[in-house]
Amino acid sequence: KAGVTQTPRYLIKTRGQQVTLSCSPISGHRSVSWYQQTPGQGLQFLFEYFSETQRNKGNFPGRFSGRQFSNSRSEMNVSTLELGDSALYLCASSLALTSGGAETQYFGPGTRLLVL
Amino acid sequence: AQSVTQPDIHITVSEGASLELRCNYSYGATPYLFWYVQSPGQGLQLLLKYFSGDTLVQGIKGFEAEFKRSQSSFNLRKPSVHWSDAAEYFCAVGAQNTDKLIFGTGTRLQVFP
């Protein structure tokens, strides 16, 4: 079974632009979460989607948004990019057999975003 | 609020030596605890997890961790480290009704031959 895939793997943007990152979960997984990883702040939770609904959101500005499609694939968007948005963006998926949460999550390789 | 503390930023061990990486958590209820490993330029790989039951959990690659409620700890151990274990290790805590994980700051493990 294929793992979590993220596209693109690397991205260079300039300040003020917007970017869309894509995540395809493991087949059969219904929950997708996004994390930002930076040297200064570490791994921080962005948001979580289950059955096309945002179930939880981290403490990030409204420039960060996401969505989930009916096939469980997810995208996240960052508008008006800032230098500080440079980071590794990780996507994780889980089976979410129930809506109870705390399932084991499997991470993708990440998208490395550089904002110039 | 949930939080995770990994007191050791960087640990260096010799190949074949034993290893213990520390993790302390703060959570009001029974926590869901995880250890992940990240190699340079890679995503996170799950080593092991604790949801309930036996407090000593076995994971992949010969790792184990012990949940100690009285100490709010979930330390990761390996009896004999291999050079390929060099990586960054993250402890994380989760909760019911969400897949949201709170991660510690990570411990970078360096292994000398």
Largest sheet of chain B: 6 strands, mixed
Q: Which ranges of chain A are low-confidence, i.e. pLDDT below 50, for 5 or more consecutive residues?
A: none
The gyration radius over C-alpha positions of chain B equals: 13 Å
Supply the number of helical segments of chain B: 0
Largest interface: A-B, 29 and 25 residues
User: Which term fits the overall shape of chain B?
Assistant: globular
Order of helices and strands of chain A: EEEEEEEEEEE
Description:
The complex is a heterodimer of chains A (116) and B (113). By secondary structure, chain A is mainly β. Chain A is 0% helix and 52% strand. In chain A, strands 2, 4, 5, 6, 9, 10 and 11 form a seven-stranded mixed beta sheet that branches. Chain B is mainly beta and 113 residues long. Chain B has no helices and twelve strands. In chain B, the strands form three sheets. In chain B, strands 2, 5, 6, 10, 11 and 12 form a six-stranded mixed beta sheet that branches. A four-stranded antiparallel beta sheet of chain B has the order 3-9-8-7, with no helix packed on it. Chain B is globular and about 45 Å long.
